[in-house]
Aspartate aminotransferase family protein
Amino acid sequence: TSITNHMPTAELQALDAAHHLHPFTHGSDLAKKGVRVITRASGSTLTDSEGNEFLDAMAGLWCVNLGYGRPELAEAAARQMKELPYYNTFFQTTHVPAIALSARIAELTPGDLNHVFFASSGSEANDTNMRLVRTYWEQKGKPSKKIIISRKNAYHGSSMGSASLGGMSAMHAQGGLPIPDVHHIEQPHWYAEGGDMSPEEFGLERARQLEQAIHDLGEDNVAAFIAEPIQGAGGVIIPPETYWPEIQRICDAHEILLIADEVICGFGRTGKWFGSQTLDIRPDIMTIAKGLSSGYQPIGGSVVSDEVARVMDECEFAHGYTYSGHPVACAVALENLRILDEEGIVERAGTETAPYLKEKWETLTDHPLVGEARIAGLMGSIALTPHKESRAKFAAEAGTAGLICREACFGNGLVMRHVGDRMVISPPLVITKDEVDTLIERAWTALDVAH
Ligand code: PLP
């Protein structure tokens, strides 16, 4: 049998439930509730197998920055596949797409982040970072510097290494995580954890936990600190303004490398090319993926400073993936970056769409269920609460309000994600003002259902 878009949805769902193991999905839900079969997409709109349309306020998984359906990317892939579908970048070889993409990334990234080690995903890139920073310190004659400090509720990927770096307790509970030499400090989540402190005081307090951890673990044992400029999968947690300057001061004062995980924040998401620019961070290493190719091909990487590259060049780094710098993925990423730049998409997202979206998004705080609405560029969140004044959480069925709201969004033609009782958005950068209006209307209706 050939399985196509034209099969009845129920048959597709049954086959899917029979043979397909899904990430982050409860297996029994597949059979019970059925799975949504997405068949095509264009711009910011998805279509499912029943012909329903959804405004995708998540850009897939925070990645389709360019929007769906750009034929130029398909053409770039086809051209590259015909010319050189695959070759590796190991053992003294390279190819033009990898050369061109690494040079372009070096131009776009701030400071002296001029060198790229390619991977196929953010998880792989963070695994690279773990080995890279430890190898860096070995090369510098400081092999005891091994510990990587990260944060609770961070998300850095799903491989053993990157999930250990992440601070998701549900992930650590499965499969024997975290692996050794990773240490987690608290997150700068003022709304949930700030108590009576002002956001400014709380930001400083949470940043200073890094200095305390370096002190407790011993500076000679700490290799690096890793963080998302704005935590994405943790619930779009925008830190208080005092947080990042203090983190930067601490990293400068102590001999540790700063890794900015820009897998979500990169490529225009926060209104500038990189979250590090929006938040004024000077990382030694940047993790990139997602928006690098707008999700049209799997590709990620670690972008490192001149100094890190200089030290690494003194050895053979015994690390690499078959698809490090895959030529088709590189060609597609290059075309994506060309369009994001030449059509002024990143620029317009930051200067026009972001202020418009912010104004509209913040009106959601008028809804009785919404305790706060935060947004930076085109990534935002609202906190659902039964009691706005005390910022209380929902009691027994934590997460239920968020889940109901997410399902109501789906029923109403909107894809929004929930993280516990936070609803998050990260739409394609090409979302129009009319679509922003639709997003807010549909979100409001879904909130009414959850209320
Ligand atoms: N880092 C961050 C900040 C992410 O949000 C993600 C994915 O959501 C990853 C890393 C992992 O990337 P991937 O899913 O491409 O492995």
The longest strand covers residues 113-119.
